[in-house]
Amino acid sequence: MSSKPRVIYWFRTDLRLHDSPALRAALDLKPECLYPIWCWDPHYVYRARVGPNRWQFLLDCQSDLSSSITKLNDKSKLFVIREAPQTVLPKLFKAWMITHLVFERDTDPYARERDAKVIQSAKEAGVEVVATRHGRTLYDPDELVKANGGKPTMSITQVQHAAEKLGDVPKPLPAPESLPDPGDLSFDFDQTQPSPEPDFNSIQRSGKETSYTSLSGPNHDFAVPTMSELGLKPATTPHRGGETRALASLDAIIANEHYTTTFSKPSTAPTAFSPQATTLLSPHHHFGSLSVRLFYHRVLTTIQKPANAKKASTIPTNLIGQLLFRDMYFAAQAAIGYPFAQTYNNSHVRFIPWHLPSKIDPTTNLITGDHIIDSPQAEEWFQRWKFGRTGFPWIDALMRQLRQEGWIHHLGRHAVACFLTRGGCYVDWERGAEVFEEWLIDHETSCNSGNWQWLSCTAFFAQFYRCYSPVAFPKKWDDEGTFVRRFVPELERYAK
Predict the structure, then answer these.
(1) Does residue 359 sit in helix, strand or coil?
(2) How far apart (Å, rounded) are the C-alpha atoms in residues 453 and 428?
(3) Does residue 336 contact residue 363 with C-beta atoms inside 8 Å?
(4) What is the rounded CA–CA span in Å between residue 173 and residue 295?
(5) How far apart (Å, rounded) are the C-alpha atoms in residues 364 and 358?
(6) In which order are the strands placed within the sheet that holds 33-39?
(7) Residue 193: helix, strand or coil by DSSP?
(8) Contact status, residue 292 vs residue 324, Cβ threshold 8 Å
(9) What are 417-476's pLDDT values in tens digits?
(10) What would the pLDDT profile of 42-100 be if each residue is shown by its tens digit?
(11) Given a cut of 80, is residue 137 above it in pLDDT?
(12) Interatomic CA distance for residues 433 and 393, integer angstroms
């Protein structure tokens, strides 16, 4: 028997080949065989709120990555294993005679729990785990917290000071030019079927969810699942995923040096929709189809050109500032853990007696995903807000765009968040965060919860005094009503 490593590379939030420190670590082992896998985790299928648009984006990313792997080695692909990683990986270690498991670090609270169980199983099986490389953010969130004195990063200034102690952002790594063959793909164990209840995504389904009928898929080829197998309603977003699309979008952005150099988030139009005023790369960062380090360095190279330096916008409103805000939220969540996404038991969030507060599980002190209807009127306002039926055309247009496309501009998010919480309905920010979790294609728990805390004045920039008028604010950006008419067509024939 060969003594060379037999490696599983476990893709998660890094659906790309370029600039993948963890994949580089796997290849540096000089493996005899490499199994590039994705575990079809029922936690996300059933327990996380995910609408059809984000599911479609994920499947795009997986399919594109699988094709890219096959281009490097026609015997390989992304092998989707339809079982929870906690139960299937220990069985694969034995069936495939694995010596090493490699994956990118993830500081999401659920990911930490999941990975701890997998690492323990690997240890018991004598499998070496390589899980020290981070790639989702510019800086390792845990290291940012350490450099911030062990405290959550609650301001962009804290992130900048902590980052200075960590040194420069590493340069991006090139994509590999070849990949080893996978080994034998046969297995002799039974699939552990997940429990589909509770299914937070039942409202997204128009058919039966059948993605777990077989460990290797209906055709026994480890294929990427389909929307039909998930029983999902059709996606309606025009925004599609995949590393190939992400790199092409990045090239187009960088080619426009004036845009890249002078970009300032508050000056971009929340009403632009064809094309949008911002990069729309955030969903690619979420799924890892575009490296944040590659984006950072290409932007930095552009703004540092002598011809551009004097007119360049600056942190925090420029493109690099947007990446630092993202790091701020990731590190804050890494420090606080599960309570980061709620008010209860979160020492860094101010309590406000909002309507429709979350129900709390007394055994975990965590929110349950359900809420108390303390006011029928507030519940009605919440539902009208969610589906774009408030009677305020600007708010309704934004919420309909969100539901239809899976994305709205940063300032649009500000406007609808302010309206639901302190600016109008006085509804708990956690209700709004749940709707964004369901509908956004770029949803990150850290960024979503953090932004809702910011806009509701409960954490981060908690003295934020600006209220976004649903009448005066859109007049600045949509005086002719073009945006509103696009998403609220029943107003199409009304005068501006």
Answers:
(1) strand
(2) 10
(3) no
(4) 12
(5) 14
(6) 79-81, 33-39, 6-10, 100-102, 128-130
(7) coil
(8) no
(9) 999 999 999 999 999 999 999 999 999 999 999 999 999 999 997 666 778 899 998 988
(10) 999 999 999 999 999 999 999 999 999 999 999 999 999 999 999 999 999 999 999 99
(11) yes
(12) 21
CB neighbours of residue 331 within 10 Å: 31
User: By the 8 A CB rule, do 182 and 34 touch?
Assistant: yes
Contacts of 151 (CB under 8 A, 6+ apart): 145, 335
Q: Tell me which residue of 461, 373, 385 sits closest to 417, measured CA to CA.
A: 385
How far is it, in rounded angstroms, from Cα 402 to Cα 386?
A: 10
> Which residue in 409, 430, 410 sits closest to 420, CA to CA?
430
Which H or E run contains 100? strand 100-102
Report the run of H or E that residue 361 belongs to, with start and end.
strand 358-361
Structure token digits, residue 76: 């390989």
**DSSP H or E segment with residue 9:** strand 6-10
The pTM (predicted TM-score) of the whole model is 0.97
Alpha-carbon distance 386 to 347, whole Å?
29
pLDDT tens per residue, range 259-281:
999 999 989 999 988 888 999 99
State whether residue 267 is helix, strand or coil: helix
Q: Any idea what DSSP says for residue 139?
A: S
Residue written as token pair 């949509």: 478
Pair 86, 117: CB distance under 8 Å: yes
The SS3 assignment for 93 reads helix
Residue 369 to residues 200, 272, 353, 385, Cα–Cα distance (Å):
9, 33, 18, 19
Q: Kind and range of the H or E element at 358? A: strand 358-361
Helices (H), 288-409: 292-303, 306-309, 319-336, 376-386, 393-405
Three-state secondary structure readout of 56-90: HHHHHHHHHHHHHHHHHCCCCCCEEECCCHHHHHH
What six digits make up the tokens of 250? 């990045």
CA distance 264 to 25: 37
Distance CA 485, CA 119 (A): 53
Instruction: Give the span between the Cα atoms of 43 and 427, in whole angstroms.
Output: 28
Q: What is the mean pLDDT of residues 222-230?
A: 98
| 46, HSE (Cβ side, Cα atoms, 13 Å) | 18
Q: What is the mean pLDDT of the chain?
A: 96
Residue 1 has pLDDT above 60, yes or no: no
Residues in the chain: 496
User: What percentage of the chain has pLDDT greater than the value 90?
Assistant: 92
Distance between CA atoms of residues 437 and 388, nearest Å: 17
With CA atoms as reference, report the closest residue to 60 among 233, 294, 225.
Answer: 225
Do 466 and 483 touch, CB atoms closer than 8 A? no
Residue 63: count of CB within 10 angstroms of its CB: 18
3-state SS of 400-440 is HHHHHHCCCCHHHHHHHHHHHCCCCCCECHHHHHHHHHHHC
